[in-house]
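Hi F.,

I've been meaning to write this up properly since the lab meeting, where we talked about keeping a consistent format for the predictions we share between groups. The idea is simple: the sequence comes first, exactly as it goes in, then the structure tokens exactly as they come out, then a line or two of notes. No screenshots and no reformatting. I'm using this chain as the first example so we have something concrete to point to.
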Amino acid sequence: MIGSSSFGTTRHPVHRAVSIARNAAMGVVVASAMVACTRAAPRQPLPPMKPQPVASMQALARAPIPLPASGTVQIDGRAHGPTFTVEVATTERERNQGLMYRLVLGTGKGMVFFMPRDYDWAFYMRNTRIPLDIIFIDATWRVVGVAANVPPMTETLRSVGAPSRYVLELDAHEAKRHGIQAGTTLRFQPMSRAP
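Output, unedited:
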């Protein structure tokens, strides 16, 4: 499972394919370096460096923007509805770690997992010491299902049978307390990183 609960990457062929691709790329780099070392060339002075062109504004606009380290999630459709302060797990390492080993999460706090694609993700509670509500959310921030009051330190995979892009983990019973269920719309607001 991911995050507090970790997601099962070993069950997903995409992750294995990425690992294989990374290993293959590493092999190509190493092989190229070995070939370069075996070719002896006479020493010549290096040519003067030429200034490189600056990337166009369009290319810069297309460049990926780093995702925030924290943010807030608010329940839409309610005046002054509850807001949760959340940590954001965006990398594979952060998603695998999640909320493992934490002894407390805290009221009004949680973690959001930004998943790499839409999929029927499954989470487990390995090394997770606090019971959680695991809320699965689609790309429009609409809840597609909730695994409620998931017991700690278990490896049973939890999923909701529907594709999700984001997963929100809160203390157990928070989803019921705030009426979060399939069809509920949430709103995520990133918080600026500290300078």
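Notes:
The radius of gyration is 22 Å.
Confidence is low (pLDDT under 50) at residues 9-41, 49-63.

If this format works for you, I'll send the rest the same way.

G.
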